[in-house]
């Protein structure tokens, strides 16, 4: 005995889609959209204020200009430091060998400068530092610069 398959009665399309994928989504009200927008703007302003006033931004930058190796025991490093006029700065300068090992190191004091008639009012100063080295260096550079006392 065989019976013929009866055609299934299918529910209307909108009902079957709602059962499968869920009902229609509710829209956000105008008040909710406005609250989300105001919160996002306030958070953005707060983050920008925090970044601009954080103590990690000391305003001191350095730029390596070059170096010259005199012999295996001496090298000279040329660099520039940009800082606020009237601010003393310290910089750590190092010399490296071919395996990137530090073969010379020195902390240099850069005294506070006065505003002068230069284009940047004395913010940028050039320095040449002589380093004593343990072996023949292949490079010389500024490791970091900072304001003493963490101003």
Which SSEs are present, and which pair or pack?
Layout: H1 13-21, H2 30-53, E1 61-71, E2 74-82, E3 89-96, E4 102-110, E5 124-132, E6 139-146
Antiparallel strand pairs: 1-2, 2-5, 3-4, 3-6
Brief sketch in words of this structure:
By secondary structure, the protein is α+β, with helices and mostly antiparallel strands.
Key words describing this protein structure:
3-stranded antiparallel beta sheet; 2 domains; elongated; alpha+beta; 151 residues; 6 strands; single chain; Immunoglobulin-like
Polypeptide structure, described:
The chain has 2 domains: 13-53; 61-150, Sandwich (Immunoglobulin-like), CATH 2.60.40. 14% of the residues are buried. The chain is built from 2 helices and 6 strands, in the order H-H-E-E-E-E-E-E. The strands form 2 sheets. It has a 3-stranded antiparallel β-sheet with strand order 1-2-5, with no helix packed on it. Strands 4-3-6 form a 3-stranded antiparallel β-sheet, with no helix packed on it. The longest helix is centred in the first third of the chain and has 24 residues, at 30-53. The protein has helices spanning 13-21, 30-53; strands at residues 61-71, 74-82, 89-96, 102-110, 124-132, 139-146. The mean pLDDT is 84. Helices cover 22% and strands 36% of the residues. By secondary structure, the chain is α+β, with helices and mostly antiparallel strands. The protein is elongated. A hairpin with a 2-residue loop joins strand 1 and strand 2 (74-82). The chain starts with 12 loop residues before the first helix and ends in a 5-residue tail after the last strand.
